[in-house]
Amino acid sequence: MDFLDEPFPDVGTYEDFHTIDWLREKSRDTDRHRKITSKSKESIWEFIKSLLDAWSGWVVMLLIGLLAGTLAGVIDLAVDWMTDLKEGVCLSAFWYSHEQCCWTSNETTFEDRDKCPLWQKWSELLVSQSEGASAYILNYLMYILWALLFAFLAVSLVRVFAPYACGSGIPEIKTILSGFIIRGYLGKWTLLIKTVTLVLVVSSGLSLGKEGPLVHVACCCGNFFSSLFSKYSKNEGKRREVLSAAAAAGVSVAFGAPIGGVLFSLEEVSYYFPLKTLWRSFFAALVAAFTLRSINPFGNSRLVLFYVEYHTPWYMAELFPFILLGVFGGLWGTLFTRCNIAWCRRRKTTRLGKYPVLEVIVVTAITAIIAYPNPYTRQSTSELISELFNDCGALESSQLCDYINDPNMTRPVDDIPDRPAGVGVYTAMWQLALALIFKIVITIFTFGMKIPSGLFIPSMAVGAMAGRMVGIGVEQLAYHHHDWIIFRNWCRPGADCVTPGLYAMVGAAACLGGVTRMTVSLVVIMFELTGGLEYIVPLMAAAVTSKWVADAFGKEGIYEAHIHLNGYPFLDVKDEFTHRTLATDVMRPRRGEPPLSVLTQDSMTVEDVETLIKETDYNGFPVVVSRDSERLIGFAQRRELILAIKNARQRQEGIVSNSIMYFTEEPPELPANSPHPLKLRRILNLSPFTVTDHTPMETVVDIFRKLGLRQCLVTRSGRLLGIITKKDVLRHMAQMANQDPESIMFN
Questions:
Q1: 678-679 and 660-662 beta bridge pairing
Q2: Picking from 288-302, 382-396, 479-493, which range would have the lowest pLDDT averaged per residue?
């Protein structure tokens, strides 16, 4: 009797920081499915169980959508309140934000809708003064103190409870989805701490967003729910299908863009994305968006703060400034990626990395001190983007809408003609210019600190500021020089020709595209944000231009650059391998190295195998007929060998150190007094992936990418010559690109 006929615990699982074997996971799932189908014909109960198994995927998606949407709503509400807490407090109920406080007040007038007796700034509360230098200084100090308190709490919680809760999480999720295992990265503690600290860091006013971390939060929800169903918890390949869909739900609630979320998961984070996952991602994104809409965190029945609608069409001549914004986005993306990676590398390799708390405190203090005097950096970044995207209507009180009105104007409210800029617009322009420079510099140092930090919102803010300034410039040019040939055909005096908010939106898309190199999903997210289908062409023009410009300086987006910086074993599907090397150049052992560690099919004892396992740290061993013939039989995983021997010693009588181990169907001929042999054929992979020594590396790289292999054996005429692992492939690719091959290790 082969004791392995009954499955034993932990077989088929992987160690931490190892790569999964996609082919093996797929075949195990096929076996499981076949077993369920054949059993379902036996009885009604088995049939019901098979139905439940088929539905479990949709149930998991429903649960992910509900939890992700709820968490996003709670985060939005908490951020709203805590951001306002830095400036003042509501007397009627301290848990109300500024806006909610003034909603409930009866004394609020339309002109002074930001002022109401129930909302008091800190200076009014503490020293009963609302104007003057002393009130300003007190408010300034309170703003800095609250910001420092929030940031200190966040970095301390991350450091003590969940070190994996820092950063945006997207580089790691890309790596996990490609088949790498990082235990605890999607755990319950990470979920809890990331949700709490995300509220704290966004409220502290640091130059970061919550959108990237929301993808991580949604993937943590996905991991939690998939562990409740054995179909997903016992199969790492199936679990990754759930995580791909969870990433879509994360973007869906971050931007209120369900379709954009599905496309983001497909274009940016997923490695293996079958059609079934596409439908499930769509469902998870839909449920998440619906849940968030039910919570209605912004009180405007929209899923995001910066939802806008424009009423004027765009004209062909405007494509030129849109493309210029695309160029700016590409240049900013390149500058940001290079500077941020250089700074993060410095943090990794110098003493700076030993003081994460101090670094966060210093950056927060600098941010708060410089941000407070400028109204555009003092408000939260989402509010800033909302103001920049806005079209100037008759009811706008923003400085950006301080135009000089024509006293004789009689027009419908939403079609206000282009007007000359007033003092407020010029003040806003130089404040925006200063805010732009500040945002560009501070974001480089903020992204990558030991706190949750997203990159979508700061990138969009940089682009929106640049875009709004360009938009106002074009608008004033068209107003004062409407007789120029470029304006003559479409911009008559008294018409509403140019929408500066549209330029802000195009700039935001261009900068986000320049940093992340997204194209299709980016355009869809932006038009879902604005609800304007007619602006797809300007957005596409800007997104494509920014990608071209950024790609001209280097193919890596910010997430790929961080994957390389951290040395994760990630084979990017987008990279091309064009070098003319062969499998024999990459395989181990090389000339001068000791021979390959192998197992023989029926001549090694248990002790020999245990010694081999102890002396080496390989993930598995090829099994050959004999050391002389080197003819390949199969491949045995290290972890399964250890578990099988341990179980055999406990459960099978007569297994001792000098028992012969065999991988054949029939036991070998043994002397009469020899101990009981141990049969391990069940754990042997009889169809390991092999290539010949003359296979071009281009083909080998393609095989590793498309099939998700861990290792591949190199043979000639059936004789084993060597082995190529995923890390060997990555090292070889790094070497060919003149990079340090030793950086390809999880460090």
A1: parallel
A2: 479-493
- The count of other CB atoms within 10 Å of the CB of residue 731 is 20
The span from the CA of 637 to the CA of 683, in Å, is 8
Q: Count of alpha carbons within 13 Å of 585, Cβ hemisphere only?
A: 15
Q: Which two tokens stand for residue 604?
A: 């090694």
Collapse the DSSP code of 660 into the 3-class scheme (helix H, G, I; strand E, B; otherwise coil) and give the result: strand
User: For the chain, first and last CA: distance in Å?
Assistant: 45
Neighbour tally for 707: CB within 10 Å? 14
Distance CA 67, CA 288 (A): 8
Q: Bridge partners of 660?
A: 605
Q: Omega before 589 cis (within 30°)?
A: yes
Contact 173, 216 (CB under 8 A): yes
Q: What DSSP element (H or E) covers 721? A: strand 719-725
The Cβ of residue 737 has, within 10 Å, a number of other Cβ atoms equal to 11
The answer for residues whose C-beta is within 8 angstroms of residue 120's C-beta and 6 or more apart is 88, 89, 91
Distances 577 to 555, 742, 743 between C-alpha atoms, Å: 13, 19, 19
* Strand blocks (E) in 300-369: none
Instruction: Give the model confidence (pLDDT) of 244-253 as tens digits.
Output: 999 999 999 9
Pick from 218, 178, 177: nearest CA to 194:
218
Please report which confidence band the pLDDT of residue 112 belongs to, taking 50, 70 and 90 as the band edges. Answer: low
Under the banding of pLDDT at 50, 70 and 90, the label for residue 747 is: very low
Phi, psi of 684 (to 5 degrees): -85, 130
What is the phi/psi pair of residue 576, to 5°? -110, 140
Look up residue 315 and give its two tokens. Answer: 């004209």
The pLDDT score that the predictor gives to residue 47 is: 93
**Cα 272 to Cα 707: distance, rounded to the nearest angstrom:** 9
> Residue 395 pLDDT more than 70?
no
pLDDT at 408: 63
Closest CA to 312 of 538, 92, 523, 569: 538
Tell me how crowded residue 2 is: count the other CB atoms within 10 A of its CB: 11
Q: Which of 592, 579, 587 is nearest to 694 (CA)?
A: 587
User: 358: Cβ–Cβ under 8 A, 6 or more apart, which residues?
Assistant: none
Cβ distance 252 to 288 under 8 Å? Answer: yes
Residue with tokens 């410089």: 370
Distance of CA 266 to the CA centre of its chain: 12
Query: How far apart are the C-alpha atoms of 128 and 133, rounded to whole Å?
Result: 13
* Overall pTM surpassing 0.70 (yes/no): yes
**Average pLDDT value for residue range 604-608:** 91
Residue 691's DSSP bridge partners are 714
